[in-house]
């Protein structure tokens, strides 16, 4: 059987990029990648044939992130008062100065749209692979992709202010 | 293409943004966009944003892989977890084997098999000692029932329950200090376990219980990395167990034997 290290390591940079784009936090992103790799190693014998390894890892990472996000929401996100003030100020500055920052604009999108734009636009997955990773039919991928890009464009062009949710 | 203005579908426009169209279709979409400036502007913006996102994230993928995410280090941590779980399982299996063989020996204790009678008890004692060693030597919170601070009470208590005057051998010359002891079920009665620890945290146990037979020869048993010397003396079985080689353990067993045998 092939050595997991030789197959997995070349995929780590892309996993880190996807995790970072989702979380916008370097340490939390690496935690998520670590959980993903540990899960992959523990289920190594369940993996799909080699060509699908990349899609399998991205699926694991996204599912772990969704689970963690759900748990985080149930617990309620803990934000220090100072930090909340700081974030709001930072967000306003971002709106004014970084209207063209696509990564910041991406953060305003719901997770499915965000993941879709990253998997297709950045990670170069085919539409079919993206459909399997996201667990939706390919037709849904195409219509969602069109909507996600329109929404992203409107955020980049008009600024995120209108859509910015207050940090609470 | 034909001069007619057949509308381009949204799916194809998205494929165009993603640069996934073959050459004839790409040219057709470009020609169509050239005739529809408003749509062309939208598609150009989407292409710019796609490129912008890729550019912004390019640096992240170019970073070297942090050591904690290297597969070798994740596998090493995973292996350590599996070994820890397996050794707990081994302890459970050892206890079961002791139970099973104790039953087997009980059935064999017939006058017609004197060799077995002579040999069986040390084996059973060595196995009982090894199982007890494996169970409690890994204990961090409660390695002993009564600590060394109450040594007098401990020895009195164990001696009374065992029906044998028990003294804790001094193993300081070998670098082992007494930690304490505990009472265990052993054979048909009770067994006592004294636990020692050296400066590096390596543990050694002395296991004592009532036994049949008068054999005094040492019996050596290696079980994984746990080595045991067991012997029977005046109706009691003794076993000293440690993660050590036979040669390291033998002088300790001899010292304990000499200390336990009443002089004269």
Question: In brief, what are we looking at here?
Answer:
The complex is a heterodimer of chains A (168) and B (264). By secondary structure, chain A is an all-alpha fold.
Description:
The complex is a heterodimer of chains A (168) and B (264). Chain A folds into two domains: 1-78, Rna Polymerase Sigma Factor, Chain: A (Orthogonal Bundle); 80-168, Orthogonal Bundle (Arc Repressor Mutant, subunit A). Chain A contains nine helices and no strands. Chain A has helices at residues 4-8, 12-23, 26-42, 53-75, 81-97, 102-106, 111-121, 127-134, 138-158. Chain B folds into two domains: 10-62, no CATH class; 100-260, Phosphorylase Kinase, domain 1. Chain B is built from seven helices and seven strands. A seven-stranded antiparallel β-sheet of chain B has the order 1-2-3-4-7-6-5, sandwiched between helices. Chain B starts with 9 loop residues before the first helix and ends with a helix. Chain A binds chain B through residues 4-5, 8-9, 12-14, 16-17, 20-21, 30, 33-34, 37-38, 41-42, 100-103, 105-106, 117-118, 120-122, 142-143, 145-146, 149-150, 152-153, 156-157, and chain B through 10-11, 13-14, 17-18, 42, 45-46, 49-50, 52-54, 56-57, 60-63, 65-66, 68-72, 74-75, 78.
